[in-house]
Specification:
Its cofactor is Mg(2+). With 162 residues, the protein is an alpha+beta fold. The protein is 42% helix and 17% strand. The structure holds guanosine-5'-diphosphate (GDP) and magnesium ion (MG).
């Protein structure tokens, strides 16, 4: 049965996904991007950027009291990060499932961290953890004009919307 166009539009979400410097340096960009792409999500923004330490501190502001905060911000600003916005129904929560648990020792096989990373300090990818965080992170990393709205040809096949 075809899904109602309005219901489909109402369920659409955007999430902020970033491949951290370790993932970029290890040549994992295409592997990671392809997992989101093959799932059926739509890429609406992408850029390679070396964030400043101050920018990294803004991105991880929630963790400022954690002992690893300084090292984490040093690391995020140590090289190129591939910043992206992905769109789809339920992409915030399911994107986190694709990524896997924060500690790769606990991530399930089949997840990005489970398959491609070993330790928590080098877990290769970031994904927004909720609707508000996604909005804040997208606004921090991208200007509105960098977000590209378009109709993907596969959308009707992914969602069954006419
Ligand atoms: P995430 O949302 O799964 O990325 O996890 P958090 O938001 O809790 O933490 C942000 C990032 O901080 C993680 O992805 C790790 O890179 C890092 N991190 C979290 N916990 C630890 C820890 O216990 N030790 C170290 N070294 N890094 C951590
Ligand atoms: Mg987090």
């Amino acid at each position: 049965m075809l899904q109602d166009q309005e219901a489909h539009a109402a369920e659409m979400e955007r999430t902020f996904i970033a491949i951290k410097p370790d993932g970029v340096q290890r040549g994992l960009i295409s592997e990671i991007v392809s997992r989101f792409e093959r799932k059926g999500y739509k890429l609406v923004a992408i850029k390679l950027i070396v964030p400043s330490k101050e920018f990294a501190q803004k991105h991880y502001h929630d963790l400022k009291d954690r002992p690893f905060f300084n090292g984490l911000c040093d690391f995020l600003s140590s090289g190129p990060v591939l910043a992206m916005v992905w769109e789809g129904e339920g992409v915030i929560k399911y994107g986190r499932k694709l990524i896997g648990a924060t500690d790769p020792q606990k991530s399930e096989p089949g997840t990005i961290r489970g398959d491609l990373a070993v330790v928590v300090g080098r877990n290769i990818i970031h994904g927004s953890d909720g609707l508000e965080t996604a909005k804040d992170e997208i606004a921090l990393w991208f200007e509105p004009k960098e977000l590209v709205s378009y109709t993907s040809n596969v959308e009707k096949w992914v969602y069954g919307v006419n």
